[in-house]
Each structure stands twice: as C-alpha cells, then as structure tokens.
Fold each of these.
Amino acid sequence: MAEETTYLIRGAAILGGDAEDLLIRDGVITARGTGIAADGATVIDAAGLVALPGMVDVHTHLREPGREDAETVETGTRAAALGGFTAVHAMANSTPVADTAGVVEQVYSLGKAAGWVDVRPVGAVTVGLAGEQLAELGAMADSRARVRMFSDDGICVHDPVLMRRALEYVKAFDGVVAQHAQEPRLTAGAQMNEGQVSAVLGLTGWPAVAEESIIARDVLLAQHVGSRLHVCHVSTAGSVEIIRWAKSRGINVTAEVTPHHLLLTDDLVRSYDPVYKVNPPLRTNDDVQALRAGLADGTIDVVGTDHAPHPSEHKECEWAQAAMGMTGLETALSVVQHAMIETGLMTWADFARVTSTAPAGIGRLTDQGRPLEKGEPANIVLVDPAARWTVDPSAMATMGRNSPFRGMELPGKVVATFFKGHPTVLDGKLNTPYRYRSEAPVAGAAGAN
Amino acid sequence: MKHLLSTENLSLANAVRILDTAEEMSSVGEREVKKLPALRGRTVVNLFFEDSTRTRISFEAAAKRLSADVINFAAKGSSVSKGESLKDTAQTLSAMGADAVVIRHWASGAPHRLAATDWIDAAVINAGDGTHEHPTQALLDAFTMRRHWTKLSGLPSTGADLQGMRVAIAGDVLHSRVARSNVWLLRTLGADVTLVAPPTLLPIGVEHWPCSISYDMDETLEKGVDAVMMLRVQGERMNASFFPSTREYSRRWGFDDNRLRALDRLGLKDTIIMHPGPMNRGLEISAAAADSPRSTVLAQVKNGVSIRMAALYLLLSGDTREPAATLKESN
C-alpha cells in the first residue's frame, strides 16, 4: 500500500530555517538532519521549499450531510489537502445538524473513508442550532468522533444563561465552546459592515458592536465559570482589544481570524457582487490592520478559513438574496503569506504556530500540529514560497466557485502534503488518499466525483 | 453613458446634459401631439419588483412620448413570484430584445447587478433600488429647483447649475434612496445641502457625506433656505423605535403650519417646499404646506416625465444626433 512507502524529503527549509532532510516511514518522521541516505526511499527534491507541519483548520463547512450540491466531505477534503491541510474541523450546521452522536460519527466516518485529511466534527451547542436547549454534548464527546469543539457557528448562542451552561458543561470532557459572536437584535437584516460604505450603498449595517458586545460578555462568562472559550472569525479592531484585555486578565480564551478578514475590506461591496458577502462581514482597513497586528502578537491564536462553499445560484442574484460565505481552503496559505509574511509581520515559524500548532491545541488533536522532529507523526506540507499564481475558482477542487480572491495574483504554492506519512498532494496536484488499515471504509461513503 | 444607475458617479457635464435635454423634452409635453419619433422601434421594459404606480406610469409616459414600445413587467403575479431569479428574468428580457430596462427593486444594488453581469446587454435605468438610489427622482428634483433658481436670477435655465442654492432635506434619510441621490447630485451641481432628521434616521457614516447635518428644523429655517424637501415617513418605521410617536415626529421634524408661517416671518418669500410623493398629509407635511403656492409637488411629477424622456433618449439614441435635431424632425 502507498502509505508504506518510505519518503526522503531532501533539503527543505524547515519552518523557513536551514535546509535539512526529513525521512518518513510508516507515517512517522524517522530521521531529521543533513545528508540522510536515500536507502531505497522515494526522494523528493525540496530545494527552495519550506517544510511546515500540516495545517489544521478549526473552521470548515463541508456541507455534508444535506447540502451535497454545495460540497461533500470528499470534495472539501480534497480542497483541504491541496491547500496544505492535514486536519479540518467540520462545522455543525449541516442538514441534519451535527447535534447528536449519530451525525458526528457519520461525518467522522465520511472523513476517514475519503482519506485526504483528518475530519474532526464540531458538535452543535444547542439542538438544531435553535439556541434553546443544549445538545447532547457528552454523547458527542464520547462518540467515535471524540468531539471536543462545540459551536452553533452561523448562529450566535445569544442567550447568556445557555452560553454560561454550555461553557460550564464542556469542562467535564475538556471541551471548548466556539462562539459565533453576533448579537442578533443588533444585526436583524444586516447585509454588510455598518459604516461609511453601507451609508452610501443603502445596505443594512452590521455594526462592530454586535460582535464586540458578545465577545465582552463571553470572556467574562468564561472567567466566571473557569472555562475555555474560542471566538470564531474575529473581524473588528474592537474585538481584538477586548480579547487582548481578556488574555491579560488570564481568561482562557482563544481567537481565530479568517484569511479574508486579513486582506479584504468593505470597499469591495461597492460592486454589489455577492462573492464579497460573508458573515461576519468584510470590515474596514483599520480593522484589517488591527487583525494583522493581533495575529502577529498572539492575541489572535489561529487562522481559520471559514471555508463556506455555495452553489452558484446562491451568489448569482441580488446582494440581499445571496448566501453569506466564501471558499478558503485552497487560498488560505497564500493569503496568509501575502498578508502576514510578505509584510514582515510573521515568520514561517509563526505561520506554523497559527495554522497548525495552536489550532491542533484548541481542538485537542494529539497527532496534529506536532514539531517536525524524529518520532513525530508525518503530517507535513511543502511550500514553494517563491511561486506566484493567479486564483481561478473554476480550477479548484472545492465545488464552491465563490472565492473572493478570484483573479488576484498571490504568492506561495503547496507542492506536497503528507498526511500520516502518505503524500495526498505531490507536485502541486492531488495524489491519492491515505487508506486506513485498522478500520474498513464505511459503506456508502465513496467519493462524490 | 451606457446606464443610469446612480447620481454618485454622475459627472457635472452629464448631469447638466440630462437637465438641458429634459428642458427640450418638456416642450413636447406642451404640444397638442405629445409625441416624438426618436425611439421608434426600440423596446423599453419597465421591470418592477416593487409596487410603484407613480414611477412606473411616469416612465411609461416618457417612453411612449418617444414612440418606444413599452412592456410592463410587474414582479407580482409573474414568474418572479414563482421563484424565478433576477438572472433568469434578465436573460428572458434579453432574449425578447429589450433595448432598455427600467428597474425598480426592493434590493439595493439590483440595477448594478443587471448592468455588471452578462445576463442582459440592454441599457439599465435605476428607477429606485432599496435604500440606495433613485437617480431620476433626484434629477427631476434638480430640474424643478433649477427652473426656480434661475427664474429668481433672471437667467436661462439651460446650461445652469445650482451654485449657492440652500437646500434642506428633512426626514427619514436612513431609509431614503431619494435623499442619497439628491445629496450626490446637489453636491455635483453646487448646492449647499443640509439634512434635517432625528439621529435615529441618519445612517452611521453620514458625517462623511458632502452636506451639513441638523437635528433642528426651526434652526435650519432660521439660517435661511431656498428649498425644503420633505421625505416620506414609511409606515413600518413607526413601530421600530426610530421615534417615540408620529405626533412627536410631526412636531419636531414635520413641515407644519407653524413652519409654513415661519417662512413668511423670516422673509423667505421665494423658498419652495418639495416632496417626492406620495405624501403623508399631517405627518411629515401639513395640508396647508402641501397645497400652498410654495409647493412644487405637482411640478415635480410633471418634470419627472421630461427627465425620464431625457434619460431614455440619451441612453438609447446614442450620441450620434443632437437632441435638437430630433425635436425639429418631429414638427
């Protein structure tokens, strides 16, 4: 079987440092150093490439079950592998909602059958995302999917009592509540960031305070009950300030920013093209700069893609009618390189922290986000940082064509992705999926293509 | 000019050109036979996703006076209410050979979508989109103001702008496409604009607009004003905490009889009172104000046809002939 092959990565700049070799055998890094003998291994010439730990996404919408016209676990994880990921957290807003052990196990099994990355289901906080009654969080935690992250993402857990209970309850199994911070009354009918541009365009505003007020409340709740809070897709300068304050007080909060909020602003909405419609909305340049600074100084812990594919008919319409969301798995690395590394705000080692080590820690993934050292699992991505490419949504593996970066020239190409020692991506193209040996693939979980 | 989508990006030259062309068109309305052959054989579609009898019949009259074929496509009771998308509707109209689409839509930006996509190749005229813009309303308002302003100074209106004219726009600016289009166009034409509204009905970001802001109607009148434009208060705002009650709204921001008298007291004998209609008599404007000689409400309606004729003419006839040439031809 393919995963039994031995690979020698020759001369990669590990975390952007000096060139070294990595020997991979049976899913494990068995040697790191210079001048390692090939000894029958398949040699991959990595001169000029950067070796990083496989990226871990804390925020992915795979749409299956229920919206297989938008994305499937198979297509979404192909996109993830091509984007340099070895693990993704599948958000709970599927149909049916991932609010029971049965649904999270289904998604988990589909992920294993696909074999492109680790698929870690996120469990819903409340039944049906309705915000009224806690879902069976313990059953999901104890299931084969071993859920540790819970989120009603797409909808805010706005009832303060329910949020408090969820935060308290997940302590029983070291879980984390990932909050979609959006005060619903302040955002009724909201279409875009509220400010100078919304005033001109006549689109209902989505004030920054609707996000910031929930984050302020939740960090205080997390402090009060001594629990772990994760804030999804932070989008405003004020949110960064509140989280910075909370961390200085020792509150156990982590935060995420999307690649699009690190690069794009609400000026793009002037086109009324719904490809720029997203939740939370694109904000101002001041917000973008604050998010970059927050990610660089560690206030924001991770980059999460919020990959949200939609069928074309949900974007080829009036702005107000359009669905919210953007694809992101296949552009995340390039956008972060562009926004953070080429600006001198971060190094590749920082990149590994915010795209792999820290997200694996939040999701409690023990075999992801590990150092590239002897004895560690071989989840590795090789990046050509000098490459430049023009984003073409129609050429992507995701079924979603709703990339806001279309037509942009971006740096950085994923050359190879190793998942459990197996190359899921080689020469920048999909190779073959990893095949699990201990468990047979689940019937009916074949690929969508 | 291929489309007329907004006044925000309308140049001074094009704005004056539309106003001047409308002056020529208005003379057609004075004749016994109110018809020009300019757009014979061309098809204009009135695509209305929102009820607006006034705007629709104004465009219809304009297109017919230019001899265009007019198709009225009301979204209610059509395939649109059965779930047809804007894209499919546009492609259908394109296949039927529409030369111009006059679109009224509840969604801000819908006309931009028609113009920016390849769904349809026709000229697009925005007849009001959501809370974004209503450019032909602002043009007919400017036309009405220009006639008044130039008459006072004894100058010909053709070629003129509104330099120095003081205009107050009062009411629900937040939800008003009329206010937005007027602010941009009046700025371009050189008028001084003051928005008068309760703070709840001004958008966040309004401080960046090229105008002054006031929360006090009486103070605005006392400073001197040449035109007061009252905006309609929509019924659905009344129960959404934008203001405590209709009576309080009327007292603080309405143009009532006391304020009508105040114009005389302040010596503002030439100040006009405007309203885009339909009016809520007794709420944002009193009956006496609406019916006073200062009121231009009916002139605005009449001028609307001339402005829409000018817009259709300039977008559809291309720039190959001067308007005057066509006008002569019809005699």
Amino acid sequence: MIVVCPKALASNDSLSLERNFLKYYLSICKKKAKLANEVWETFRYKTLQLSADKDGAYERIAEYRGMFEPETLVLNAEFQEEEPKKEYSTEQMKEKTKSFLERNWADVELFITQTPENYKDLCKTKDIPLMSLSEFYLDCMSNDKNRDLLMRYWYKIYEEGRE
Amino acid sequence: MSKIFEIRIVHKDAMPEHVRRQIVADAVKKGVSFQKNFKGFAKVTYITNSPKSIQSVEPIMGTIIDYFEANKKEGVSIPSF
C-alpha cells in the first residue's frame, strides 16, 4: 500500500503538479493511498469548517475519499456516516502517522511524505521506502511501467497548453 | 436519502466489460462535443452506509485532473497542513 503524510495530502506549497500526478496515478491504477485515521478526520473536519458551501465541501471530501482512505472505517451508529468530531494538532497527526507506519511496516510499499525528517529514523529501522511528492514523480519517469502513465499525463498537460 | 460517501474517477479499462460497454454507450448519447473530450474516464458515485453501494456510473469529459478543475467550487476550501 501507499501511505501519505498530512502534508502530502494537502498543503499550500507549490507542488500542485506533483500532487495532481499522485491523484492521476491513484486513479489510473485504481489504488487508494492510506493515511492515519486522525489525519483523515482532521482533513474532513477542517474542510467542513473552512468551507462556506457545505454541500460542495461534502462532495469534495467524497472525491478525496475515492483516492485516500483512513486506516479503519469509522461510522456513526445512527446514520452510518463518517463524522469528524475534532481536529488534531500537527504533532498528534505526525505521531499517529508514525504509529500507523510502525504497525503496518510490512505492507507499506511506499511512504510519500513532505516532512521526511519526522519519519527518517522509523523508516530506516523498518526499511520502509520513503519519497517526497517530487521524488515520486521523478521515480515514475525512471520506471518502465509508470513511464507510460507519466507520458499520458504530460501529453494531457501539453494538449491543455495548446488549447 | 443517503449522502454521497465516495466518488471515484476510474478509467473504463479498469472496469468490468458490461460497465465499460455502458460507459461508452452513455458517452455516445451525450453528443459529439462530449465524445471529443471523452478520455475513457467515468465517475463512480457510492452512497453512504455500511456496506456502501454504487449509486451511479457516468462518463466524464477529460481526465481526473480536468474533473477536479471543472468542479472547483468557490465556497469550498481544502485545508493546508
């Protein structure tokens, strides 16, 4: 499985191309990237809090849910829906992501993180492959299987530029 | 009515044969300009409950990135971690 850290999921950095490629990759490969429950809950909670259009926010969350998945499915008993109750601090999300990696180390094929310094020791001990979004993008270029995916992605961007 | 739980943008090649045929037939019905921009992707909508169930499968124009761009809503903000 592919695991992502909070910053790889959503951030205001300049990596929209690389982040979009990850979404494209997950969609084409029909895969979902996993994250700690607390990261997903915070993402849901904050998206709903920050958005004026609540229906639109629910739809966007559903779109993200199609690409990213928390470790366990937590539904409320009454409506059988995911219900974010609170947000977690950056430190808590980091610790929970570490715990998730530690418990699932043998199933992790790749951990994508924008803050490798937080996880370097753990990944070294457990031998978990770690990459940033940019490294993942570059790695796909050198991988025969994924190069075709990247070519299609580039062609799409090229086509857009021509329009 | 149940809320939407999950939306997946999936390429038709990754779907079973009968769904693939349905997607192409739906894309044809939508007219020439849709067909021109149809890249084989479909939007699969799942509704909330456990277990979740598929509500609809519909072809979309362009790829997943185009879908995200086209569906950007003004009142929706994604947090930054």
Amino acid sequence: MDTELTQTTATGLAAAIRSGEVSAVEVTQAHLDQITATDGRVRAFLHVAADAALAQAAEVDRKRGAGEPLGPLAGVPVAVKDLFTTVDMPTTCGSRILDGWHPPYESTITRRLREAGAILIGKTNMDEFAMGSSTENSAFGPSHNPWDLSRIPGGSSGGSAAAVAAYQAPLALGTDTGGSIRQPAAVCGIVGTKPTYGGSSRYGVVAFASSLDTPGPFGRTVLDTALLHEAMSGHDPMDSTSIAAPVPPVVAAARQADVAGMRVGVVTDLSGEGYQPGVMSRFTEAVELLESLGAKVTEVSCPHFKYALPAYYLIAPSECSSNLARFDGMRYGLRAGSGSAEEVMAATREAGFGAEVKRRIMLGTYALSSGYYDAYYGKAQQVRTLIIQDFEAAFGQVDVLISPATPTTAFPLGERADDPIAMYLADLCTIPSDLAGNAAISVPCGLAPENGLPVGLQVMAPPLADDRLYRVAAAAEAAFVARWGHPLLAEAKGLSA
Amino acid sequence: MTVTYEEALQKYEPVFGLETHVELGTRTKMFCGCTTVFGAEPNTQTCPVCLGLPGSLPVANRRAIEFTIRIGLALNCSIAPRCRFARKNYFYPDMPKNFQISQYDEPLCVDGFLDVLVGGETVRVGIERVHLEEDTGKSLHIGGATGRIQGAEYSLVDYNRAGIPLVEIVTKPVPGTGYLAPSVARAYVTELRDVLRSLGVSDVRMEEGSLRCDVNTSLSVRGSGVLGTRTETKNVNSLRSVERAVHSEIERQAEVLDSGGRVIQETRHFHEDSGATTSGRSKEEAQDYRYFPEPDLVPLAPPASWVAEIRSSLPELPSARRARLIQAWSLSELDFEALRNAGALDVVEDTVLAGASPADARKWWLGELARRANDAGVEVSALPITPADVARLTELVASGTLNDRLAREVIDGVLDDEGTPDEVVAKRGLAVVSDDSALLSAIDSAIAGNPDVVERIRGGKVQASGVLVGAVMKATRGKADATRVRELIMERLA
C-alpha cells in the first residue's frame, strides 16, 4: 500500500497526476487499498465503487496521455455522502426505506465533479436522512472516529469525515443542515465547510430540511477544501434556491491566507455552560493566534442565538415531515405489509424508518398542525428572522465571527444514543449559520488537553462571502502547523493501535 | 316526504359557490420540462421531478405564472406583488410526493368578479381568488362497484397528469339568485369557459378533465339572514351537470331541513346518470393539510411592468365582445345568448367579416348549418365549411344565382368535400336558370300538360298558377327562379 499517495493532499495529487509523476489509476488504487485495510474498523463507506473508480481513473490517464484537457480535480478521489443521487451507485440515505434504490438520475454536484475529473470512489455512511450528530442513526451501523475507534465521528456526514481523516479519500462531500459538515470535521480533526445556502446545488441531494440543507466539502487542508468547494459550487437552474452569482474566490483566498487588518468578532453567546474546558482553552488560543497574525479581535453578542436550537428543532422536523412523506412504498424502495394502499404505506414507513426519523416526522407533523402552526412553526420562523438580524448587526461591525465549532470533543459511541436532547446539543454552535443561510467553516485548532481529541475553530461569514472563511482558516492553519511542526491529523492514533 | 324545487325555493334562499380547476395549456408541466400533451401512453411523460423522486426539485414554469396573471386580470382581480407557493400535505398514491405544491394564504390573484348573463339579466359573481398549483396523477380503481378506491381490487396510477399546471378559481358565495341559482351557476361556468378560451390559456375541455368544477351549495331560511351549512359536490364535469348539481342539492337539503334534520358539512359525489349526489367523506373529520410555505421555491414576485405588459396584451373579453356585437348587429341579449349557446359566435363573426350581412350569417349558421351539425353530432364550428364559404353562399343567393333550395344543395357539396361553393355550383350545374328562352319550353310543356289549370287561371283563379310553377320547377330540377317563372306564365296566358 502506498501510504505516501494517501497522505498527499488533493492539491498535491492533482498536480502530480497532471505532470505525469503519478497515474490516476495508481492514486485510486492506493486509496482503494487504504479502504480495504482500514474500513473494517472505521466503517466509513456504505458502498465502494472499486471497478467504476478505476475505470474513471483509467479514463483520466488516457486523456492525459492523449493531451486532452484535464479538469481541476482530474484523478483525485472523492468520497460521497450517500444522499447524493448517483446513477452508477445505490443511494440509501442511511435508511432501510431506500434499500435497493438505484437513482435514474445524477445529482448536479456529483455530475460537476465527474466533469472536473474527480474519481467518485464510493458512498459514505450517515445518520439516516442526515438526522443525527454521530452516525449512530444509520440503519447500517455507526462509523468510527479514526482518532479513537470507540468514539463517534460526528454526524450526520460522519462517514465522509471519517473517510478523509482515515486517508481513505483526500476529499469528501457532505451536507450541512444543522452542523452536519462542521461538527464531524471538528471531531475528526479535519476541515469542513458549509457554503452559503444556495451557493451549492441541492438538485439530486435527498432532502432533509429544504430551507437548511447545504452541500459542502471536506478536506484535510484548507486549500484542498477550497478546491472541492470551488469545483462543486455555482448556479444551477434545476434548483430554484440556487443563487445566480459567481462562486466566491475561495481557492485564491485559501492561498492568500492572510488576516492582517481583518475584523474578527468572538461570539460571546457561544461559550459558557456545557462547553468542555479543553475546547474553550484551545479556542482561546486560536483567538490569541489570530490577534498575533494582525486580526482586530472584538467581542460580539448575538442575543438570539440561545433560541436557535429550539427554533431549529421545529423548522427542520416540520420540513422533514413533508419531505419524507414520499417514502411510502408505492413507487420505489422498500415495500412492506399488504392490504390497502393506506395499510402498505403505514407498514412501509413503520418498517423502513428508524427511531430518530420517526421522532422528527412526528415532531414536525405536530408543529405544522392546524391550531399549533402559529405557536410552533410560525414562532420558530420569527426566531429565525431575529437570528438573521443578529448576524446582520454583527457583520455590520466585523468581517467574520468565530466560535468553537462544537461544545465538546468526540463523545463515546452509545453515550448519547438514548438521549436525543444531549445529542442535539452537539450542534449548538453550528445551527445559527444554518438558520441564517450564511457561510461557515470548521478548521482544526488543537487537541483538548483532557482527552487528546481534536477541537474545531468555527469561522462564520456573511452570505456569499465564503472566501473570507478560507482567508482566516488558512492563516490559522498555517500558523498552527508551524507551531505544532506537523498537521494535527498526524497525531491521530486510532488506526495504528 | 319529497320536497319539490318550487316548495324548496319558497322557504329557502340558496347560496352557491364554485371552485373551478383549469388545466393550463402550457407546453410543459408546472415544475419540470415534461410535455403536457393529452392522451399519451400512461407514465411516458414523466421525469424525476414530476415523479417526485428523492432529491428532485421543482422549478416554476414562467408561462404558467403568466397565464394565471392573464386569468386574474380578465377576472378583474388584483395581482399580488409578492406571493408564495405552499405545500398541501396528504397521503394518496397518485400524489408522487404525498404533498401537492399549491398556494394557500398568499394566492397570486385576489378579489375580482365576472359578470354573467342569465335570461337577459346581468349577475355579478365575485371572485375570491385565483391560484396556481400542480395537478396530481390519475388513479384508475379496478374491481370495485363505485370506481373509487374503497372496495377496489387494485389501482393503476398514471403520472402523465402529475405536475400539469392547474389554476383554481374560487368564487365568493353567490346569494340572492333564488330560483335561478342553478342557471346562474351554469352561466358562470359557461362564461368562465369562454373567458379562458378567449385568453388562450387552456383548451377548457370538460370531457377531458381540463376544466373541472366543485359546487358548494347551502340553504338559508328566507328572511333569517343566517347562512346554512354548505356541502361540496365533486366531479361536476359538464355545464349541464353544474346546473343539475345545484338543483338537486337544493331539493335534497330542503328535504333534510324540512324533516327536522341538519345538513352535514361534507363532500358529496355527483352522479351523471341520476343527477343526484351521494355522501362522500365528512369534512367534520376532515384531514389537516398542514400547509406551510414551499421551501424549495423562492417567493413569486411578478414585477409591475410585467403585469402591465400582460394586461396590455389581453384579447377582447367575452363581455366586451357581447356589448360590441349586440350593438353592431342590432341583437337583443336573447338573440346573443342563442348565438353563444349554439357555439356559433366565432363562425358568424368571421362570416360577417368575410362580407355577409349579420342577418344572413346568423340565418345560415343557426338554421341549416346548426341542423347539419346536430345531425352529425358535432359543434357547428367543426363542420367542414368555412365562414368564407358561407359568406360566398349568401352572396350567391343575394345576387339571384342561387335560391335557398339550391344553396342547401351547395352546402351538401361543400360538406361532401366537393370544393368551394363556386366549384360545387359549377360541378353540379346548380345555378338558377335565368335565361327566359330556356324556361319557355318548360312553361309551354306545363301549359300543354295542364289544360284544366290553364282554364281556371284564365277564369280568374290566379293562385292556381302555382301548379304550373311547380311543374316548371320540377322540370328544371329547381334551378329556375320561381318569381320569373310566374311572370312568364302570366305573360304567356295573357
């Protein structure tokens, strides 16, 4: 197994393949070997497309040999969260109810990545329909954190984060609805971005909560993450909520990696009770680091953020109760029971959905019911407006906001599985950006002293200012790596034990 | 105890309202690019979007929005500067997503009216709202007695219809029409259909389901001022059925009330065969549709300039046309209604434009041609004769080339695809014989063959000349001008 290739950055791989230093087939094979060697323990993948991936890689090598133009991701393996529709791989959303479904159409983002030359290496595990923070809600069993296999890799895009942290793929796709990219990135010690809502297409992304779902990239470095961010983004006429604006120059910003003179606001409301001491100490260090790099740091209050979690847990379930109504056994996927159409629908949904999905469908159905709508869904939308206004006021004073990405480091598998509220708190810091639709990133900022597990720094920017995330995150990353002497992930020992 | 319609009306005041669904005639569906052509093999006009496959997303059809605004403007509505689509959630196998994208508390068009003419009187029907939504698939329930899902052995679903743009036009409650309520309801749907047709937004074919009506009916005790409980009658899919449905609900509800019962708020099904309604699901145990704003679509905000542009492109509407034609053709409103009810407005107007007098054009289209259409079981406008042909026919009659009997023969020829009226006249040799010398031999034969008649004429019984005229007409196979023949006979016998 060629560990040198699997440890190379996506940027490095793309350059090496382009120059002919290494073939796309060699790169792909190295990652497939790493999956074979480690995925029995990590369980990041639900489907590995070995043959198709090697065929795509061979095509890249042929193009290069023939002197044909190569896309920006030519030959670079990408792991795909299993809710993007793909015509050559199943799409399960981590659910029994889609067992055996082969989508007849391709998502816009995976199509764009294929066009950019990326090798779609497989589909990754996730909490069922993206509902969860640990992958424990997957119908196919949890994924494991490469830092400590007994701990959660975060969720819902936990399989994608674990795959990147385990060097099974240099890049991965996720979706962020309440923190489902940033929280797993933080607890796996990698980089993950939630782009501006509407900046990345949702067409072919199986919906959890339509007004929140945002596809985004994972990488081990800020620049790699920017590379995928740029390749997957841009206006899509198939998605009405897609923004018709140029993609922010995120790759250039990641290369710029400069915070001198930037106004950085520390969100005071995202700290205090419930935050692990080691998370706060690493966060404080990050603030000092940014200041030392020339950023002008101030404290900013966003008084309505404390209502974000309850508002989210009304809005997201409401939308999911409607989005998931189509899974009824009539047309595709699982069909259970017999008798009338109504009986088959009920039996299929009973057998096909897991406990958390059912809980959220029930919550949402209730919140939208006649007589309760105003008190729940309506009120939550008003809170959402207040949170947007908090952000607008804050971004009137500063260029970016920062906070810890998660209140705690990775918790042990099973610890919160039976306590939904405790599980929901994992997204405390990430939810406000989802409700407001703005952009946010999580970048590693060290290990919590008490357990040696990674901590993420969250940077938040106004809508369509995604490039600011990359300037700040890349500057912090460079300074931290210089201080540590190596990338943080080099300290992950879960797979070497 | 049976209550007659007349008895019901003496005691109760009916109030009705109509919800009309119209399939728009856009080329593609509401939220995807699938074609909308009617009658294709089931499930051949579908895609991931209209099948509601996981991950698919809707994109609104601009043309459908434009058509809805056209309808709203034609119905004198205000066009909302900003509105939203909403999801209507319920489970049913012909709904691909188990929710329908519709509009709820923010319709695109609100608060208009439509004036309709009933028995020469104008009644103003208020329009509550006009909104845009997607149609569902079509279910076919096999093996049950009723054709409904209850009791069926199995069901087939055709998703070709799923996602076709549908406009719902909701009237305000229409009170005060009394005895005429069923006629006003019918006249409203007729007028609405004509408006929609003139706007070019739908083919408005009730038999193909592109225009479907639900009829709400309630009774209030005369003088009480209290509105009664309403029922909603579904499946009312012809003009005649609209009238019958209101009529039968008035009788049924009066009977319920007279026998001390209570009208239940419910959905009722209309039966074409009996003209009666039967109970469907009760609204009192109605589903909660859990409407909420559709998060997959951005709010709809038609710019004022676009609305103004659409307004300026509206065609002449039926009410304006009615006023214009009544004036120009010197018609009574009843004359006009007769023309409209015969479906002959367009052809008559085109015939007048082609040079015929309004009186002649009406005479031929409402008379001979209406009879032919009726015999053939088609609309008068569907006959294979053009308004230009009819105009030429009236010209030939006016100039004396044809008489009415010959003109009917020319119509035979045109309908038999023998060509234009002139070609038929030539081919069949149908022109009136105007050459006196050609007539004189026939006249002489008639005189020679009827000495007794000649005797009577000479004796002063001039009207007996009809026998001779008839003989001449017969001999010339109707091609003679009867007036001229009579003149020539009298000269001969003088």
